[in-house]
Amino acid sequence: MIQTKVLLFTYLLHSLVSFGQGSVVYNTQPNTQMAKVPSGTFQSFYEKKESGNLVSVGEFYLDIYPVTNEQFLEFLKQNPKWRRSSVSKLFVDTNYLKHWKGDLEIGTTQNPNAPVVNVSWFAANAYCRWKGKRLPTTSEWEYAAIQDIKSKEKNDTTKVIDVILSWYSKPSMKVIPNVGTTFHNMFGISDLHGLVWEWTSDFNSYVAGGDSRSSDEIERNLFCASGSFGTVNKEDYAAYMRYGFRGSLQGKYCLQNLGFRGAMDIK
Amino acid sequence: MIMSLRQIWFLSMVVIFISSCNNVADKKENYHADDIINMKAAGEIEAELTDAPNVPKPLEYTSPKKVKIHLEVIERIGKMADGVDYTYWTFGGQVPGKFIRIKAGDEVEFHLSNHPDNKMPHNIDLHAVTGPGGGAAASLTAPGHTSVFSFKALNVGLFIYHCATAPVGMHIANGMYGLILVEPPQGLPKVDKEFYVVQGDFYTQGKFGEQGLQHFDMDKALREEPDYVVFNGSVGANAGDNAMQVKVGETVRLFVGNGGPNLTSAFHVIGEIFDKVHVEGGDLLNYNVQTTNIPPGGSSIVEFKCEAPGTLNIVDHAIFRTFNKGALAQIKVIGEENKLVYSGKQRDDVYLPEGSAIQKIPEGEAQPAITERPLAERLSLGKTQYESNCAACHMKDGVGVPGAFPPLVNSDFLKNRVDKGAGIILHGLSGPITVNGKEFNGVMPALQLSDDEVANILTYVRNNFSKIDGIVSAADVAKTRNAGH
User: Which one of A128, A137, B55, B257 is CB 3.0 to 4.6 Å from B299, fit for a cystine?
Assistant: First the structure.
C-alpha cells in the first residue's frame, strides 16, 4: 500500500515535470511529439514469483499520439518499397492499407490525422526505424497504458479500466477519429485506449495459447498462455483482452483496428 | 370381460415394451467412438446453418460425409429488451449462434471467420470435438482472418459450442455460444416440429430494464448476479408475435442448450410434461419429466405432444428469473380444444375450511362503507398494495413482460378505460388485447380486493406510471363493482 502511494506520487511528480519542460519535441508538428516516461514498476499480468509479480521498466520516450495516415504517407513517399503495389507479400497480408484509395492516396473516406491502421508489424517496425525510433516493448506499452487518466476539466482521475471496458464493449467505428480525441493519461500520453489497438515490438513473446484456459505446468512456465492460473489479477479483463488480442496476431497481419506508435531509448 | 388390475398392468407393460421396440431411436443401439472412427466419409456437403428458434432439416444421408461449415463471428449492437441495447459477440449474427447439424462419423472441415470490423480475436470450442480444447487452440482468429481446422464427429449427442478466448467468461457472457447436434447414423425419430432454444445470463451495468446501451458488468458476472436471464439472446426473443407455433396433435422436439456463463437452468414448460428427455443431451432417456436440469455448457433434448390449444410458456423454474429477468419463451398451440385433456375453469367456489357448505362467491354483495382517503395516503398505500398484488407480473416499475404481461407505463389501453381500470382488477381480464401497439393474449384473474384497496392501487398506477393526476375514489370503484362489469 505504501509502495503504491509512493509510486503514485512519483507518477504525479513526473507527469508534472513532463508537462512543464520534460517532453521532448522532435519537430514542429504536434503529433510527432514524444513524452518522457519515467522508470517504474507495475503489476505483472503473468505470475512472476521471482520478482514479486512486478515488472520493471526503465525510462524511455514514447510518442504522445499514434502514427497517423498522413505521417505514414510521408514514409511511403520516401520508401517506395513499402507502398501497397510494391511491398513484399512476406511482410504484409492482403489487407495492407486496404482502406486507402491508392498507393500514395489516403482518400476522402479516412481522416488524414487518424491513426494509420491495416499495417503489419514489419511495416510498423520499418516506419519506426526510418524515424530513428523503435516499437515499444509490450512491458513499456502496458506500463504507459495502465496509468490513470488525467482530466484537465475535472480535478480527478478517471479509472482507466472503466474507459477501456467501455471502448471494448462497442463495435469498431467505421471511420476512426483523429488522434488526440480521447484522453491524456498521467504521463501526458494520448489515445492508448479508445481509438485502435497498437503493435508492440515483442507482441508474440507472451504466447497466449489459442486455447485461453490451458495452463499445463510446462506451458505455465514457458508460455503461461493467458490461462486463468498463470495470471496475477484475475479481474483485469482488459489486460486479458490485450494479451489475448496480441496472441492472435502474426507479424504480417494487417487489421483495420490495429495501429502503432514509436518509442525511443533515452541516451 | 372383466380384467383384473394385474392383467391390465401386465398388458400395458407389454404394449409399452412393443412400442418402444418399434421406435428406432429408443432401440438401444450403442455407437461407440471406437466403431465410428472407422466409418469412412464419402461425398462432400455444405452444412445448413440456422438461427434460433429454427433447426436445420433432418439429415437424409445414412453414411458419413465430409461436411464443410462456414461460421462468421460478428460483434454487433442488438436489442436486449425494449429500449435496452447490448453489444453482443455472436457466432453468425444472433444469440445463440447458428445451429449446426451433422451425423456421427462425419468429417468436418470448420472455417471460423472473424469479421474485419470486430475488435476482438475469437475462437471456438465445440464440445462435440474430441481433441485438445475442442478446436479452440486451432481456431484462434484475429479480426479479418479465417481459421480452418478439421475433426471427425465420434460421439452422438447434443453439444454446446462456445468461444474460449481470454477472457473466456466475458466472451461467453456476451453471447458466444450455440448448439451442434451429432445425430446417430440412422437419425432421430421423426417429429412434426423441431425448435432451438438456448438460455443465457447477461450482466449489464444498469439494472433490468434500464434504458440505453448497457455495458458488460464484470463485478456482477463475478458475483453471478445477472440482470437478464433470457432464452435466445433477448427478452421476448421468442414470445408474443415471435412465439414458436405448432398445431394441436403435433409432436415437438426442443433442442435446448445453456450457454451460461453462470446459471444452471431448471428448464420447464408450463402446461406440458416432457414425454421423453435425452438427459444431458446424451443417450440416456427419461420419460414423463416435469423439469430438467441444464447446466452451463450442457444441453437437453426434450419431446412432447401438444394435445391442448393455448400458449405454452417456456421458463427457467428458478422462477424469479422468469418473472423478473426475462426467462420466458412461448409456443403457441393452435387448434381445437379437447375438454377431456383440459377443461379450463369449470367452477369458482368459496372454500371454507371450517364449514361444510360450499358457497358461491356472492356477486354484487354490498361492500362495507369506507371513508375516502386523501391523495398522498392513497399513493403510499397503493404503492405497497401494487407491489404485493401486481408487481409479480406487471413488474415493480410497471413495464410488464414483453409478450406475456402488458405494461402499465403510459398504457393507452388503461387510459381509454372509462372505469379507470377498476373493472380489470375486480373482474379479471382475458383474451387478446392491444397495449401500446403490442398484442397480448393472457389471463388476469379477478383479485379479491376491497373497493378501498382497488382505489389505492389505481391511484398509484395512474399517477406513478402514466402521469395522470388525481385520485381514484372508492366510490368510483364501487360504481364499477355494482355495475357488474
Answer: B257
Inter-residue contact A163 to A183 (CB < 8 Å): yes
B64-94 b/e (C-beta count within 10 Å ≥ 16 → b): bbebebbbbbbbbeeebbbebbbbbbbbbeb
Give the DSSP H/E element, type plus range, for residue B223. helix B218-223
Q: Render pLDDT for B43-82 as a digit per residue (tens, 0 to 9).
A: 999 999 999 999 999 999 989 999 999 999 999 999 999 8
CA A4 to CA A2: how far, in whole Å? 5
Write out the DSSP string of B317-355: SSTHHHHHH--EEEEEEES---TTT-------EE--TT-
Min Cα separation B133/chain A (Å)? 6
How far is residue B456's CA from residue A251's CA, in Å, rounded to a whole number? 70
Contacts (Cβ under 8 Å, ≥6 apart) of A31: A64, A65, A68, A71, A113, A179, A180
Whether the CB of B136 is below 8 Å from some CB of chain A: the reply is yes
Supply the DSSP symbol for A176.
P
Structural domains in chain A, CATH included, are: 2-265 (3.90.1580)
* Contact criterion met (CB below 8 Å) for A207 and A137: no
Residue A230 touches chain B, beta carbons under 8 Å: no
- Concatenating the DSSP letter of every residue in B347-415 gives --EE--TT-S--EE--TTPPPPP-----HHHHHHHHHHHHHHHTHHHH-TTS--BTTTB---TT-HHHH
Judge whether A233 is closer than 8 Å to chain B, CB to CB. no
Q: In this complex, which of A214, A241, A257 lies closest to B143 when CB atoms are compared?
A: A257
Total CB pairs under 8 A between chain A and B: 106
The three three-digit cell numbers of residue B423, written as one number? 373493472
* Cβ(B268)–Cβ(B316) below 8 Å: yes
Min mean pLDDT across A201-210, A228-237, B178-187 is at A228-237
Are residues A212 and B168, on separate chains, in Cβ contact within 8 Å? yes
Q: Nearest-CA neighbor of A117 among A179, A208, A37, A171?
A: A179
Residue A211: closest C-alpha in chain B = B137
Chain A CB within 8 Å of residue B148 CB: no
Q: Tens of pLDDT along B82-110?
A: 889 999 999 999 999 999 999 999 999 99
Of B145, B167, B215, the CB nearest to A240: B167
Rounded CA-CA distance B291/B266 in Å is: 6
What is chain B's Cα-based Rg? 26
Measured CA angle at B403 (ends B401, B404), to 5 deg: 60
Quick check: pTM over 0.80? no
Instruction: Please check the confidence at residue A222 and state whether its pLDDT lies above 50.
Output: no
Write down the pLDDT at residue B279.
Answer: 97
Q: List Cα–Cα distances, A55 to A52, A134, A142, A224, B149, in angstroms.
A: 9, 20, 10, 16, 37
- The pLDDT tens digits for B10-25 are 555 444 444 444 444 4
CA distance B108 to B164: 20
Query: Is the per-residue pLDDT at A4 higher than 60?
Result: no
| Angstrom distance (rounded) from CA B420 to CA B469 | 12
Chain B residue numbers touching A248 (CB-CB < 8 A): 121, 140-142, 165
Asked whether the beta carbons of B31 and B185 are under 8 A apart, the reply is yes
pLDDT digits (tens, 9 = 90+) for B201-241: 999 999 998 888 998 988 899 999 999 999 999 999 999 88
What local confidence, expressed as pLDDT, does residue B372 receive?
83
Q: Which residues pair with B231 in a beta bridge?
A: B199
pLDDT at A28: 37
Q: How many CB atoms lie within 10 A of CB B128?
A: 24
Query: What contacts A252, CB < 8 A, 6 or more positions away?
Result: A90, A91, A92, A93, A120, A121, A122
Confirm if A262 and A67 have CB atoms less than 8 A apart: yes
Please check whether residue A211 touches B, CB under 8 A: yes
d(CA B399, CA B84): 13
